[in-house]
Design a protein that fits this description.
Strand content: 15-25%
Number of helices: 7
Radius of gyration: 53 Å
Number of strands: 80
Length: 751
């Protein structure tokens, strides 16, 4: 006996309210209030008595008065006439009273007859209702028995009977809505119970769907195959009938749900074996808790009305939810997708929960829309995961999610907060052209293979603190509109930030670049912090623009470093920085103060044609290779105090527009060069020193004791004599010719 059947085994006495009222008897009972009065009982006697008495009085009384009292004949006639009127009036009143009493009696009889007829009708109706309900329950019992029949056609007939019975109960106006719902729910429970009932052949669906008999098949293949297909049709028929009576909705502009006649029922398919397609249906209150799907699970184009629960469901083969719509919460928490899972172009109107789910094969969420929160926290994607062009309108949660193969978040729109905290990407990951409209958290995230944020946009803050990039990391043309942090992040391979835009502060404090780091043509709109950063291989800031302060305090560059044509708009600090290999600042522009205090250049370093617009400090700097400052322009004070040049020091063609300070500088190998032959023009290229207006601003060439000296000579400009390196010249800072791109008032070379 299926679930709910026993509830139908009730007596007919419970079908309608009991009738304890007795019917009207055949003989009419006259109420006491209508007992016959005495004037009615003696009506004839009174009528004759008043008639005779009144007539006699009208004849005798006037005659007696005329005879004995002398009444005139005219008065006697008048008296006689009045007596006759009085007698006639009395007789009329008696007649009216009798007629009225008779009419009242007739009305009471009619009312009694009407009441009796109504009671008889009510009794007949109740008997009819009992009969109808009893017949309904009898059909229900037979239909339930049909569900256990061996023939699929009989089972189908039983299903259609049960479905029809539900509709009949809902349309039964003799019951209140609550009772209608109760009666229908019992049948719904039986239909759901049938869906949940086991079907052993479901476990053989892979073999039975083959065109030929598998070699290892045990049993009658042809018979089992037919039985499987028949049962698929039978169980699908239940969902078809439910779908026809479920809610409908349109999704032109917004989703508007119109309830169906079965919308208030509860449906329970928990732990059910599903081995048939459910595509192109409407499923209301879908409860597939712990359900097992044999064969491909097909939910293409399905509309899930209200909540859809697939908690801990097991999908043994491919899963298809392509273009499905979930109007309520979608719960796939801890679900197991053994084969490919396709949720492409699906719409999740309410929260979507895939937390702790396992995707063993490819998972596709491409172009899906998550209107509310989407939770993939601690989910595991063993193969490729595709979220290309998906939209997350609310929070996207990927906390501790594991992506074991390639994952694509390209062109995804994250409208609210996004959390990838401690997520793991073991293969390639793409966020190309993704848009993060709110804070994006990649704190402690691990990217084991290549990852691309190429042309991605972070509208709000982005946190990559302590993230690990094991292979190539591409942030080419990425836009960070608000603060971004890569503090303590590790880039084991190449890190490409070429043409990236950091509109607000960029924090690379203690970041490790294990291989090449490239920031070519990158724009830093606010402060850039590279304090204690480590660059393990070549690093390039070619044509990079630092609009605000740049801090490289105690950074470590282990291989060649290039700041070629880099623009430092505000102050920049390279204090205590270690450049372990060749370094280039050629054509760099320092518009703010430049601090190279105690920096160490262990290879050649070039500042060829660099421009220092404000103070520059090389105090205590150490250059173990050649230091090339040829054609460099120092527009403000420059200090090489206590600096050490272990290789050649080239200053040919440099322009010192303010005082140049070489006090206690040490040239350990050779003399410093302030004049050299220009290979391009074939002319001598001489350093130029500004003719300073005051003595305290004069240039200082008193090198450290034991240093190779700077050979000095004297020259004169505007009557003022200066001691400057031999062969160099003085110039008037006010004599710049923009057309010729040179100073026109020069002294003779110092001799």
């Amino acid at each position: 006996m299926l679930e709910g059947e026993r509830s139908y085994q009730r007596g007919q006495e419970n079908l309608v309210p009991s009738d304890n009222t007795s019917s009207i008897p055949e003989s009419q009972v006259i109420p006491k209030s209508h007992e016959m009065p005495c004037y009615i009982q003696h009506f004839t006697k009174l009528l004759i008595g008043f008639g005779l008495g009144g007539g006699a009085a009208a004849i005798l009384l006037p005659w007696f008065l005329w005879l004995h009292c002398g009444m005139s004949s005219g008065s006697s006639d008048q008296l006689r006439l009045h007596l006759l009127y009085v007698t006639g009036g009395i007789i009329a009143v008696l007649t009216l009273l009798q007629t009225n009493w008779k009419n009242q009696g007739d009305r009471l009889k009619i009312d009694a007859d009407i009441k009796k007829n109504e009671q008889d009708a009510e009794k007949n109706e109740r008997d009819h209702i009992r009969q109808v309900h009893a017949e309904r329950r009898s059909r229900y019992t037979r239909a339930v028995e049909q569900l256990a029949d061996e023939k699929a056609t009989v089972r189908l007939g039983g299903i259609h009977t049960l479905v029809g019975l539900v509709d009949e109960w809902l349309a039964d106006e003799t019951l209140d809505p609550e009772e209608q719902q109760k009666e229908g729910q019992v049948i719904i429970n039986n239909l759901c119970s049938y869906i949940r009932s086991p079907f052993p052949l479901a476990t053989k669906i892979e073999d039975l769907q083959a065109d030929t008999v598998p070699a290892s098949y045990m049993g009658d293949f042809i018979s089992d195959q037919a039985a499987l297909r028949e049962e698929q049709d039978v169980r699908r028929a239940i969902f078809d009938e439910m779908s026809k009576r479920s809610s409908t909705f349109n999704k032109d502009n917004e989703i508007n749900v119109t309830p169906g006649i079965w919308s208030n029922f509860e449906f329970n398919f928990s732990r059910a074996p599903i081995f048939y397609t459910l595509s192109n249906l409407t499923i209301e209150k879908a409860n597939f808790f712990y359900a097992t799907f044999y064969g491909d699970a097909r939910f293409r184009w399905v509309n899930f009305i209200k909540n859809a629960n697939f908690f801990r469901a097991k999908f043994n083969r491919n899963t298809h939810f392509f273009r499905s719509v979930f109007t309520g919460e979608a719960n796939f928490a801890e679900a197991n997708f053994t084969q490919n899972a396709n949720f492409g172009e699906s719409i999740f109107i309410q929260n979507a929960n895939f937390g702790e789910s396992i995707f063993t094969q490819n998972a596709n969420f491409g172009e899906s829309i998550f209107t509310q929160n989407a939770n993939f926290g601690e989910a595991i994607f063993t193969q490729n995961a595709n979220f290309f062009r998906s939209t997350f309108n609310q929070n996207g949660e990927f906390l501790r999610t594991i992506f074991s193969h390639d994952v694509n978040f390209g062109e995804v729109s994250f409208e609210e907060k996004t959390n990838f905290f401690r997520a793991v990407f073991t293969q390639n990951a793409s966020f190309r052209k993704a848009v993060f409209n709110q804070n994006a958290n990649f704190n402690e995230t691990t990217f084991t293979q290549n990852v691309s944020f190429r042309e991605a946009t972070f509208i709000q803050g982005a946190d990559f603190c302590m993230a690990t990039f094991t292979q190539k990391a591409k942030f080419y043309r990425t836009v960070f509109t608000q603060n971004v942090s890569f503090r303590k992040a590790v880039f084991n391979q190449n890190a490409n930030f070429n043409e990236a835009t950091f509109t607000q502060n960029a924090n690379f404090n203690k970041t490790v670049f294990g291989q090449n780091g490239s920031f070519d043509e990158t724009f830093f709109g606010q402060n850039a912090n590279f304090r204690k950063a480590v660059f393990g291989q070549n690093v390039s800031f070619h044509k990079t623009v630092f609009s605000q302060n740049a801090n490289f305090y105690r950074a470590f560059f282990t291989q060649s470093t290039s700041f070629y044509q880099t623009v430092f708009t505000k102050n920049v600090s390279f204090q205590d920085v270690s450049f372990a290999c060749e370094t280039h600042f050629d054509r760099a522009v320092f518009l703010g103060n430049a601090n190279f205090y105690k920096s160490i250049f262990r290879g050649n370093v070039g500042f060829i044609k660099a421009t220092f617009a404000r103070k520059s400090r090389f105090f205590g700097a150490i250059i173990t290779g050649n230091g090339d400052f040829s054609k460099t322009t120092f527009e403000m004070y420059v200090s090489f105090r206590n600096a050490t040049f272990e290789g050649d020091a080239e200053f040919s063609g440099a322009s010192f527009m303010r005082n140049a300070d070489f006090q206690d500088a040490c040239f350990t190998q050779s003399h410093s060069k302030f004049i050299a032959m220009d290979e391009d023009s074939g002319k001598l290229c001489r350093a130029q020193f500004a003719a300073l207006p005051t003595d305290w601003e004069k240039h200082n060439f008193t090198v450290h004791e034991g240093s190779q000296p700077i050979p000095l000579g004297t020259t004169e400009l505007d009557g003022v004599r200066y001691s400057i390196p031999v062969g160099t010249v003085l110039f008037d800072p006010d004599s710049w010719d923009e057309r010729q791109k040179e100073y026109t008032r020069l002294s003779e070379p110092a001799q």
